[in-house]
């Protein structure tokens, strides 16, 4: 699973369209991220802010590698 897909599905628990709204991008951008195109620094910061706004414990390492299956977030 891609790192961004892990963040979207396992951390935020939202659809691509919902995640796009949180990050201030299009659903197509989220799809590209999940296919391997990295988000920009500004987009990563927007995702981090969205996590903070939702009181989600955040780990920047998730941007680079999703935890192994079964590993605690």
TrEMBL record:
Q: Which PROSITE patterns match?
A: HTH_CROC1
Domain (HTH cro/C1-type) spans 4-50
What the entry lists under Pfam families is as follows: HTH_3
Q: Tell me the SMART domains matching this sequence.
A: HTH_XRE
Taxonomic path = Bacteria, Pseudomonadati, Pseudomonadota, Alphaproteobacteria, Hyphomicrobiales
Q: What is the name listed in the Swiss-Prot or TrEMBL entry for this protein?
A: Transcriptional regulator with XRE-family HTH domain
Q: Which Gene3D superfamilies match?
A: lambda repressor-like DNA-binding domains (1.10.260.40)
Read off the InterPro entries from this record.
Cro/C1-type_HTH, Lambda_DNA-bd_dom_sf
């Amino acid at each position: 699973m891609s790192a961004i897909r892990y963040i979207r599905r396992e951390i935020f628990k939202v659809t691509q369209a919902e995640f796009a709204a949180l990050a201030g991008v299009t659903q197509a951008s989220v799809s590209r991220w999940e296919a391997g195109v990295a988000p920009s620094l500004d987009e990563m910061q927007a995702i981090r802010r969205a996590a903070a706004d939702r009181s989600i414990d955040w780990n920047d390492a998730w941007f680079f590698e999703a935890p192994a299956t079964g590993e605690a977030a």
